[in-house]
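Summary of Year 1 activities. Much of the first year was spent building the evaluation harness for sequence design. The harness presents a backbone, in tokenized form, and records the residue chosen at every position. We chose the following record to illustrate the format because it has been used consistently in internal testing since the harness was completed.
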């Protein structure tokens, strides 16, 4: 039986993320989820606000409360979380965030979704207009730069992953006005339901980070 260790940037449990990976992976796969902010009380998490847009990460604490947290704080705590997952017997490790991270202690062999999405987007859209969905308005500038490459025009909109269907369709309509050729959903908390809302409005394929990453891990763990 293979074990997948998932490090989330917030707190475990994250049954929403775990369920998508469980559905994609072989049925006997054991999934262990740990959070970089596990053990912190809500007040302690609230004391880790982002300094600016470059330091902003979005997550859902235990899958129930939306928060923006400091990327620097997550980076500081991540090695302990990865070490714990290795002690749990993980055969593959996933850092479940689409942000771009610098080298961290213990990150050898860890799957980072941002690299998967970037590679797929480059293969599917060598040139054209990339629609980008991000959680917070203050992230638009930074994440647009992350996705920018020669021959690509970026059109970005903000949408909280916990937003209603109506809000998702409104964001989709704003993206549709830019006529994107491909959409990248730049957060692991976006759901298949969010993607379905986009596809009802925008005539373009959309890369959902969590399911795209799950399919790659299916190849690694099959």
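For this record, the design step produced the sequence shown next.
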């Amino acid at each position: 039986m293979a074990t997948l260790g998932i490090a989330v940037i917030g707190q475990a449990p994250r049954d929403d993320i775990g369920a998508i990976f469980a559905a994609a992976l072989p049925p006997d796969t054991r999934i262990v989820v740990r959070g970089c902010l596990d053990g912190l009380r809500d007040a302690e998490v609230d004391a880790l606000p982002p300094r600016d847009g470059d330091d902003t990460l979005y997550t859902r604490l235990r899958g129930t409360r939306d928060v923006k947290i400091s990327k620097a704080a997550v980076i500081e705590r991540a090695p302990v979380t990865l070490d714990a997952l290795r002690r749990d017997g993980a055969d593959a490790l996933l850092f479940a965030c689409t942000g771009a991270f610098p080298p961290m202690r213990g990150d050898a062999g860890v799957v980072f979704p941002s690299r998967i999405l970037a590679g797929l987007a480059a293969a599917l859209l060598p040139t054209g207009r990339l629609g980008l969905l991000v959680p917070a308005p203050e992230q638009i500038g930074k994440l647009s730069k992350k996705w920018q490459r020669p021959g690509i025009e970026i059109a970005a909109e903000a949408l909280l992953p916990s937003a209603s269907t109506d809000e998702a369709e409104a964001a989709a309509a704003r993206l549709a006005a830019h006529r994107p050729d491909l959409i990248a959903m730049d957060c692991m908390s976006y759901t298949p339901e969010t993607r379905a809302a986009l596809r009802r409005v925008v005539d373009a394929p959309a890369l959902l980070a969590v399911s795209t990453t799950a399919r790659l891990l299916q190849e690694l763990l099959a």
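The longest strand covers residues 128-134. Quantitative recovery figures across the full test set are reported in Table 2.
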